Amino acid sequence: MKEYKPDNLIAGDFPLVTQSITIAAGQTLERGAVLGRISANGQYVLSQVKASDGSESPNVVLAQNIDTTDGESEATCYLSGQFNSAALTFGAGHTTGSAMHTLRQLNIYISESV
Questions:
Q1: Which pLDDT score, from 0 to 100, does residue 112 have?
Q2: Any idea what DSSP says for residue 82?
Q3: CA neighbor of 89 nearest in space, from 41, 28, 34
Q4: What CA–CA distance (Å, rounded) separates 14 from 92?
Q5: Which pLDDT score is estimated for 24?
Q6: Consecutive H or E run containing 99
Q7: DSSP 3-state of 97
Q8: What is the pLDDT of residue 5?
Q9: Beta bridge partners of 35
């Protein structure tokens, strides 16, 4: 029997909106990863500040663990909601502070859970 272990990703009652997206190949990501969209192909990767393909702008939160080492794959992401900063994974160069303003404009709110 698999034991349930809460991850405390969800931090409030703000409505959660989900959508299926395509995760680019070559990544192993955990629930709570902050992703950016590659403009050229519409696939998502862990958002990193120094990227220059559109994915440098964080815009969704991954809702499930995913491994795309063998090729791109579909996954569920959060388009809106309130999330615990300690449960989020940011790519190189991003921090809660640097991503908060951009995500807030997309109805993704970051807070510290009690």
A1: 81
A2: E
A3: 34
A4: 27
A5: 98
A6: helix 96-104
A7: helix
A8: 66
A9: 46, 60
**Tokens standing for 109?**
């709110």
> What pLDDT is attached to residue 69?
96
Per-residue confidence (pLDDT) for residue 12, from 0 to 100? 86
* Both structure tokens of 84: 């615990």
Question: Quick check: helix, strand or coil at residue 106?
Answer: coil
- The label of the residue with tokens 């050229």 reads 40
Give CA–CA dist 60/42, Å, rounded: 13
Q: Give the residue ranges of the chain where pLDDT is below 50.
A: none
71: left (phi over 0), alpha (psi -120 to 50) or beta: left
Structure tokens at 35: 């992703």
- The pLDDT assigned to 7 comes to 77
Q: Which residue has the tokens 């959508």?
A: 19
pLDDT of residue 1: 63
Positive/negative CA dihedral, 38, 84, 89, 52: positive
Report the b/e string of 80-113 with b at 16+ CB within 10 A.
Answer: bbbbbbebbebbeebebeebbebbeeeebebeee
